[in-house]
Input
Amino acid sequence: MTDTIETIATRYSCRNFKSDPLPEADVQAIARAALQTPSARNRQPWHFSIVTDKALIDEFDNLGMEKLRVDNVAAYERTISRGGRLLYNAPAMVVISAQHIDGLMSSGLDVGIATATVALAAKGLGIDSCICGLASQTGHGHETEPPYDRLGIPEGYEYVIAVLLGYEAGEPGAPHALDESKLTFVS
Ligand SMILES: Cc1cc2nc3c(=O)[nH]c(=O)nc-3n(C[C@H](O)[C@H](O)[C@H](O)COP(=O)(O)O)c2cc1C
Output
């Protein structure tokens, strides 16, 4: 297996991070990989907020859990059953915001590709991740309000998703089962 195939095959969603910070060189490499993501017409309709302030991440976690408790009981209970932390004690995260140029279709796809790029770049450096759509439940629509204003999201951009980063605190997770019925080979 090539390194890239191995990286893709071994990534899984980590939901229990150690508090250990990431090496600064790895943070910089992940940030650079994010910028290397391809996008339609090279418009790069995104902004990446690279957060390594654990206290701020914990603040987002508390706000998110409170929002879920009130607005999304099913997701709240699922998160409680997974340990009770929306952001799983991650010591770092990349918040990806989108500029909606031609509607969600184009920039949404671009941001999705960026999301995968960040998660796979991290895995390639031995860093676990969890793509966390629920993180946006609190940030979306509050981009200019404290504490979200610390993310530096430019005007006209919306908080879409976060990729949580760190090191697994428990047993390594297994990659999800592959569904071969999703493949059609045409030759
Ligand atoms: C767009 C997107 C949003 C996701 N949001 C969450 C989330 O809010 N919380 C969570 O724990 N996992 C989230 N996940 C992780 C998925 O649950 C996970 O990727 C899926 O179950 C497959 O498992 P694997 O990542 O271990 O292969 C999200 C994944 C994607 C791609």
